[in-house]
Amino acid sequence: MVISKEWDNLLELISDGIIITDHQGVIVKVNKAYERMLSIKAVDLVGRNMSDLKREGFLEESSSLKVIETKHPVTLIQEHFGKDLIVTGMPMFNEQNELILVINCVRDITELNQLKRSMQQIEQINHSYFEQLTYLRQREIHLDGLVAHSQSMREVLTNALKVAAVDSPVMLRGESGVGKEVIAKFIHQNSRRNGEAFIKVNCGAIPEKLMESEFFGYESGAFTGAGKGGKPGVFELANKGTLFLDEVGDMSLDLQVKLLRVLEEKEFRRIGGVKTIQTDVRIIAATHQHLEEMVAQKQFRQDLYYRLQVYPISIPPLRERKEDIPYLVDSFARKYEEKHPVPLHIDPMVKQLLCRCDWPGNIRELFNMLERLAITSNNGEILPDHLPLEMYRPVGSTLPRNFLEEVEMFEYQGLKQALVIHKTTRKAAQSLGMSQTTYVRKLNLYRDKFEADPKMEQEIL
Ligand SMILES: Nc1ncnc2c1ncn2[C@@H]1O[C@H](COP(=O)(O)OP(=O)(O)OP(=O)(O)O)[C@@H](O)[C@H]1O
Questions:
Q1: Helix 436-450 and helix 403-422: axis angle, to 10°?
Q2: Residue 229: its pLDDT value, please?
Q3: pTM of the predicted structure, to 2 decimals
Q4: Which of 9, 176, 303, 427 is the 20 to 30 Å CA partner of 260?
Q5: Which of 18, 8, 11 is CA-nearest to residue 108?
Q6: Radius of gyration of the chain (CA)
Q7: Is 185 close to ligand 1, i.e. is its CB under 6 Å away?
Q8: Number of domain units in the chain
Q9: DSSP 3-state assignment of 296?
């Protein structure tokens, strides 16, 4: 098959490499772009069969041979002489539908691939910079004493950082003492409002009658006892800053309506005042209550609930992130040392023992206990035997040494717990579904095994 002069000229104008074979795979045309791309002369290829070139290792795959085999277009990606190539082979048929030529279009995608790899590297670098940035921002606050070592708390901080970047209301959920206020401050410090006021109102602590004036302030003479010159409320004080509404579930329905109105209209009036005051505050609410149930029972307004619940963050209880405890203890010690002349040394075994407790009062309870221990310790040294008896187990003989003893210790705690609740061994045994004899035998056995001073424990029981 001979290619006409016009076609030949045309093929030389194309910037992609072109290599054409006949229906048997014999090369009939190689354009200049192909020669340049693969640094090869057309005369060395024209007249050669693709099957021979493949056999000699010139190429691994031949699109021409594949097209001849299938009679369909074929696209291959090949590495050829150190270059990444994309090759598309197209069949050409005569009027009798017989294959006469295969036209292969070859494009060098080496640079494109390099670009793709560079892009991927840049993306990876960007990602690691972002992670480092988040980490550094968290560390900065960590230096303020905020501990977030556990995975769950790191997720809380990541979410808090995300929401800090916008102005939406945040709802912090979590048991008492888990650190809702700490996270509220963290959000404020990392928001554009940092540097402006952070005002906290405990909605559960202020008598209902005073709540409205606490929120919106009053003008002089607004009511009996209103001070001269009036007083600004928290919405004025927190202007441009953040208003932290702690225990928002304790707010009266009446005040809920007023709060919702301010949030929607962004303006209010002092009690007894005529002037409308514009307000620009970011609301962070917190509660340990089940607000959804309160909404169902009409104790909390649904519209306010949706308004505040735009971005909820749940802070897990300490018992679900005990790995934070040793770091919290260190954080406490650092804070304590800032205020007291005596350095605090907390024995590592104390940290271990503290990790065994469930801390229903969460971090507040942990810190209160540490404070008590720090005060009662002689020289700032806190040792295991300073801990309350139910926490303290002398090292060695009485601490579980293996899995079986761990299980026994667990069983022993259950036996004791049942006795505390049910008062008599008969009822305790009944509650655990065992006979009184078994109960007493196990209790005595474990008591001898795990208690430093069984007599003392007896008194407690
Ligand atoms: N992640 C933390 N790192 C260090 N200290 C913390 C952390 N979380 C809480 N604390 C400390 O624990 C104590 C209780 O925290 P906070 O007052 O924020 O809890 P809360 O959930 O707001 O409690 P409540 O619901 O009773 O108001 C504070 O002394 C606080 O500094």
A1: 120
A2: 73
A3: 0.60
A4: 176
A5: 18
A6: 39
A7: no
A8: 4
A9: helix
Residue 136 host element (H or E): helix 110-142
Percent of the chain predicted with pLDDT > 70: 89
Q: Are residues 246 and 304 in the same domain?
A: yes
Q: Which amino acid is at 448?
A: D
Q: Which residue has the tokens 């070592």?
A: 149
The phi and psi torsions of 97 (rounded to 5 degrees) equal: 65, 30
**Cβ atoms 204, 246 nearer than 8 A:** yes
Q: Are residues 445 and 357 in the same domain?
A: no
Hey, CA dihedral for 102, 108, 110, 113, is it positive or negative? negative
Q: Sort strands 83-93 and 276-278 into parallel, antiparallel or unpaired.
A: unpaired
How far is residue 409's CA from residue 337's CA, in Å, rounded to a whole number?
36
Amino acid letter for position 150: S
In this predicted model, what pLDDT tens digit does every residue of 97-121 receive, in sequence order? 999 999 999 999 888 888 888 888 8
- Based on the fold, state whether residues 325 and 450 are members of the same structural domain: no
CB atoms under 10 Å from CB of 117, counted, come to 10
Distance 362 CA to ligand 1 centre (A): 8
Ligand 1 pocket residue status of 179, Cβ below 6 Å: yes
Task: Give yes or no for residue 101 CB within 6 A of ligand 1.
Answer: no
Where in the sequence is the domain holding 192, given as residue range(s)?
144-316
- Residues whose CB is less than 8 angstroms from the CB of residue 240 and which lie 6 or more positions away in sequence, other chains included: 193, 196, 197, 280, 281
Classify 138 as helix, strand or coil.
Answer: helix
Are 18 and 88 part of one and the same domain?
yes
Which ligand 1 atom lies nearest to the CA of residue 328?
Answer: 4
Q: How open is the CA angle 239-241-244, to the nearest 5 degrees?
A: 105
Q: Which amino acid is at 51?
A: S
